[in-house]
Amino acid sequence: MSEINRDHLMAYLDGQLEPDKRADVETHLAAHPELAAEIAQLQRQGDTIRTLFAPTMTEPVPTRLDPHRLAVMQSRRRWQGLARAAMVVGVLGIGMAAGWLLRPAADNPALYNRLIADAVSAHTVYVAENRHAVEVAGNDAEHLSSWLSNRLSTDLAMPDLATAGFSFLGGRLLPAPAIPGGRAAQLMYEDAAGQRVTLYITPANGVGGPDYDLVRLGDDNALYWANAAITCTIVGPQPAEALQALAKTVFPQLTPGPAPTAPIYREL
After folding, report:
1. 68-93 residue pLDDT tens
2. Which residues pair with 175 in a beta bridge?
3. What InterPro entries does the database record attribute to this sequence (predicted)?
4. Which residue ranges make up each domain of the chain?
5. What is the pTM of this model?
6. Fold of the 74-267 domain
7. Rounded to whole angstroms, how far apart are CA atoms 20 and 25?
8. Cβ atoms < 10 Å from Cβ of 9
9. Can you tell me whether residue 126 is helix, strand or coil?
10. Which of 41-45, 88-92, 226-230, 242-246 has the lowest mean pLDDT?
């Protein structure tokens, strides 16, 4: 007879031993009365538990404990974690590119370059959201226009981009500490394929810089435009040509006037 250890005794209690091994355990217990008494007590406890919870054992497994559902939830959490990690990497990449964009040309970076970098950073953060992509939904455009106009101290329209294939999701107010007044508006649009584009709008007072610029930061293109009243940076993953075409719809609705000339494309 091989040596009997604790694992053998627990398997004996659970009825998981082969007949020959079970016989060895019973012989061992007969030779050790104190151990036999302990095993008998454990058997009584097991019988009591099974009697108390027998009705529960016959019930179906709750939906929340379904193995398939638990596996799906675990997989979803894993992918959400990967998505968050990818977003962090993307934001870091944007930060590195923005750092290049904002490198000092003399003593300070051009203010309009800071607005472009801020526009791309805000775009990266909020287009990844589902329930909280915007602060005020697009179906309340009148209120959104009034609210943002008051905060930016300018008349701000909500451009309709339906003819370009984009639906209006809504917008939000953002801090812009680099400019007088310290506020910016972000408007978000989405096409039928789920690709999103944002408009980052600030008052033009004190900004300076070119009237029109086009730059690539990370995976997104940013088209910057300014007139005497406002600046607007259109940000999206669409090709530069697509953003230029979209600008022809956006800018006349924001502030009527002649369209600016095409910019030089900068890729960072």
Report:
1. 666 666 666 665 555 565 555 455 55
2. 183
3. Anti_sigma_zinc_sf, Znf_put
4. 6-57, 74-267
5. 0.59
6. Phosphorylase Kinase; domain 1 (3.30.200)
7. 9
8. 18
9. helix
10. 88-92
